[in-house]
Every structure is written in structure tokens, then in C-alpha cells.
Amino acid sequence: MSSAILSYIGHNLAYLRSNLSSLLSSPVLLQSSASVSAFLSSNDIDTVLFDCDGVMYRSGTPIPGVSRAISHLLDTGLKVVFVTNSSGSNRSKMAAKLTKLMGRDIPRDMCLPTCYTAAWYMKKHHPDVDKVYVIGGQGIVDELTAAGYTCLGGPSTSSTPSSMNESSCESFVPSSSVGAVVVGMSSDFTYSMLFEATCYLRDPECKLIATNRDAFDVLAGGVHQPAAGAMVAALEASANRKAVNVGKPTSHTIGILEDEFSVVRSSTLMVGDRLDTDIAFGVNNGFRTALVLSGVTPGELACRVCSGEGVGEEKYVPTVVIPSAGFLGPGKEAEEELEGGGRARL
User: How far apart are CA 227 and CA 224, in angstroms?
Assistant: First the structure.
């Protein structure tokens, strides 16, 4: 899998290198760890925010060199925070996963999944709510419960009916004390979840919160897996309501980063693989941004965006483009690994 990742990065990098004449003077394509290090120093970067899927790993396999890079950044005194739109795992489980993949201890207070952001948002803006109906993974339930909320819904069980007929819909009695519906990625999303959430949202005082609006995730082979945005869109349509998105690229994510992680915008770098979330988040909030070529954004799209030809949600131009997060590490290991595994000379 590592060789496949390196090959993918190499293909994207080769495309960018062969089309450099079409790139604007900014962003800059940084092709060595030394140039990345110089960029960090010249911009007085003291905090690096990392997206996870497509940046730290793909399909559960670490991106080559990322463990070395994270250790280097921490050893040199930089603050590192992992900021993901994923909401399936709570902070402790996210930290355990990263610890295993990185081969070094990653504490919980370096992790910011959107299930924790949603709980922070609820405490900050809706502290009087008692019960929350959840569509999504166990992470949302865990973080909301830890914040003092009683959760209904959540991951379905084998005993939970997935469908409902008119009779069962008419006989459903919603809990009058549900004050919010929180929606995230749900791989077991069902009609009954959609119906029950819609019933709660008939109350205009009931809040509708989305952990993120990512329409899809990209799996191995370019397969698109429907993500939280698909569930959010379905509920917005059935309830005729607009959800508050707390994930990247919204201001709620920068709110928690400033409040609980003491992030200073002018000295922060956002490293991500998605233009519509990671890079948009950085651009909108005054961060420097680094687009990596190891995830969702292929070389062809990166080239169009860097040439000023991006449109819609893919219009956000990064400060720099780097082959992978491994290039934030020391020495020439990242270049050598990519040259050997990706067959793309630097």
C-alpha cells in the first residue's frame, strides 16, 4: 500500500512539475524537506494543523514519512493539532489510532475531531439543551455525553428497524425534551433515522447541527464514499431547515482552536488534501496553507487551482504545494522515498 501511495504522490507531482509554466507565482511548489523547513522558518510558523485522512494516512496506511515529520516538529518545539472533519471516534480513540499509526504517543489534547467540536458548540451556544438526537457514529454520542447531554439515536443496532410504513410513522411519539439534532457520517443511515430526526425538527426551537458537510470521501481506486454531507442534505430537505455546520471550513472550528488550543492565526500553517475544507478553512481564517498531493486533490486539479482556474468550492488557492506531509520531516528521506517508490525524480 505504501508503494501505491508513493506512486500516486509521484504521479501528481510529475503532472505539476510538467505544467509549472502555467502556475502563478503563488503558490510555490516546494519539492524538498529543506525548502519546506525554510518556508516554516521564514513565516514564523509555531503551530501546524494537520487534516488526517489523505494527509496522515490513506485506507489505514500511514503516508510514508509522516511519523518522522511529526516527531521532528514536536522535537523542535512546534505545536501540532490534528483537525479532522471525521466524527466517528471520540478524542481518546482518535489519539489511540494516531499513536498506533505514527509509532509514537499522540495525546488526546492534540486531537480535534468534529464530534468534540459539536459538543463544544452545544455547550457554548445551547447549554440549556438536555437531550440530543444523534445521527452518526459513537464518537458523537461519547463527546456529547461527556459534555453533559443525554443522547437518543446514534449508531443503529440489529434490533432497530430501518424502514417505516405510514402506520408506524403515524404512531411514533417523539420525545418533547429533545432540543437538538446532531448529524454526522452514518454508514448505517436509515429511513427511520431520517423520519425521527424530522419529527424532532418540527419544533422550531430544536437545533440542527452538522459535524461537517463533506459530500464524499475518496477511497482506494478513486471510489467515492458518501459522507456526512449526504445525510445532512437529506435531513435539510425533509425538515425544510438549514443546518449549522461546525466542521471545516466554518468559523466554529477556528473558534474552538483559539479557545481551547490557543492557536494564533498569523503563525499557523494548515496542512490538508482538500481544497473545499482544509485549504478553504486556512484561507478564510488567515492561516498559511499547504496542499499535499497524497489525498483527495489530484495533480490535474491542483494545477488548475494554482493557475487561478478553480471554481466553486475548489477555488481556494493554497500558499504552497508539497508532495506529502512527510516533507515536513528532516533530511532527504522523504525525497529518497518518493524517488524510489513513486518513480518521480525531484
Answer: 9
Q: Is 51 annotated as a binding residue?
A: yes
92 inside domain: no
Is 109 annotated to bind a ligand? Reply is no
Has residue 35 been placed in a domain?
Answer: yes
Exactly one of 44, 46, 53, 109 is catalytic; which is it? 53
Q: Is 203 annotated in some ligand binding site?
A: no
Number of domains making up the chain: 2
- C-alpha cell, 327: 516533507
Looking at the structure, tell me whether residues 299 and 330 fall in a common domain: yes
Query: Rounded to whole angstroms, how far apart are CA atoms 184 and 157?
Result: 17
Of 44, 51, 259, 276, the catalytic one is 51
61 lies in a domain? yes
Q: Is residue 99 part of a domain?
A: no
The whole-chain average pLDDT of the chain stands at 90
Domain of residue 236 covers 115-245
Q: Assess whether 140 and 44 both reside in one domain.
A: no
75 is catalytic: no
Q: Is 123 annotated as a binding residue?
A: no
Res. 343 pLDDT band, cuts 50 70 90: very low
Please answer whether residues 46 and 79 qualify as being in contact, where contact means their C-beta atoms are separated by less than 8 angstroms.
yes
pTM of the model: 0.92
Tell me how far apart the alpha carbons of residues 236 and 93 are, in angstroms, rounded to a whole number: 30
User: Does the annotation mark 130 as catalytic?
Assistant: no
